[in-house]
Amino acid sequence: MSQYTPDSEAAVEEIVRAARARSEPLEIAGGGGKRALGRPVQAAATLSLGKLAGITLYEPSELVIAAKAGTPLAEIEARLKQQGQRLPFDPPRLHRLYGGDRDTASIGAVVASNLSGPRRVHAGAARDSLIGVRFVNGAGETVKSGGRVMKNVTGLDLVKLMSGAFGTLGVLTEVTFKALPAPETEATLVFEGLDDHQAVACLSAGLGSPWEVTGAAHLPAVAGAPARTLLRLEGFETQMAYRGKALGDALAGFGGCDILRGADSAARWAAIGELEPLAAHDDEAVWKVSTTPNKAPEVAAAIRAATGARLYYDWGGGLIWVAVPAEGDAGAAAIRAALSDAGGHATCMRAPDEIRAAIAVFEPQPEPVMALTRKLKETFDPDRVLNPGRMYAGV
């Protein structure tokens, strides 16, 4: 397979135009760490954005940072940290899921897959902090959307559209984010021994309290370790003792709690964001299951009964990470059956190529929505040059 490594937006345009003229589909890659996310792409060549890197704008006083799509996430986070700032949505690397070096994860891949960590429950998804994009469409034309400020949008919001499009509508070349000040410290309340229903009730109560919970996860019991239910607080050191006690008192009906502080709390949430509690084996498929928190325990129970899955909850119970044997349909039918009454959607985040080629990796869409998806692909990439079939077969 050929590989193109452009170092400028103009070079990306040229490569896409040439590929279109040759009817040569391209697989789009950033650092290359997320190529196993989505359906396998049947392409004659790879367009790698690793050389299209560098921070192009940083205004600390305006809380705005822009970077070329191939810029390592680690570089952006380090630059923000120098000014006491951060990206709001806790972006994960998922290198334990896909392999590779955690420091090669690119900001373009984060945007293309709309990856968000545990803080999403408080700060929103990656697309909610994204305020500008530049991308090259399937005709080899550069499109710019958004800017340096958050504002209301009428018509088609291309910034939000490109986040989560998995490179099927355009090749991202530059992205602009709104940053936020980083907190002085953090603390995590840890309740032990709650079952899934009790845990989700505890998480919901914490998120509904006035104490600004920024992380809410439940790790069911495993051999040698009790179930743990975690709620994170972030802010000034002078606030933390008061807010931690107030939240603990508000949740006293769920039992006593321990408190992790500072670096211990940060390490625990970093592990949760990188799926370490799932401890997924190489021979397991991994699913991301989203539903309403009050229905999550029933959904989880049904998945466990049908597949023997191991799992844990994030986002207050609204997200269930699931590991099942990577055989047959990797649990696709059972997982989606469990969601049929509760509502929600499931995405296969990892499975062997042959399984991902045979199942619906992303939640199947109703036909009217699928027709719109096809129309968008036709509009932005009429000859299906960019990541064809990455999200849906034939699109």
TrEMBL record:
Chain segments annotated as transmembrane: none
Name under which the protein is recorded: Glycolate oxidase subunit GlcE
One Pfam family per UniProt: FAD_binding_4
InterPro entries linked to this entry: FAD-bd_PCMH (IPR016166), FAD-bd_PCMH-like_sf (IPR036318), FAD-bd_PCMH_sub2 (IPR016169), FAD-linked_Oxase-like_C (IPR016164), Oxid_FAD_bind_N (IPR006094)
Annotated PANTHER family: D-LACTATE DEHYDROGENASE (PTHR11748), GLYCOLATE OXIDASE SUBUNIT GLCE (PTHR11748:SF103)
The FAD-binding PCMH-type domain, residue ranges: 1-182
Top-level class of the enzyme under EC nomenclature: oxidoreductase
EC number: 1.1.99.14
Key words, A-Z: FAD, Flavoprotein, Oxidoreductase
One function term, GO molecular function aspect: glycolate dehydrogenase activity
Gene name of the record: glcE
Gene3D superfamilies per UniProt: 3.30.465.10
Source organism (scientific name): Microbaculum marinisediminis
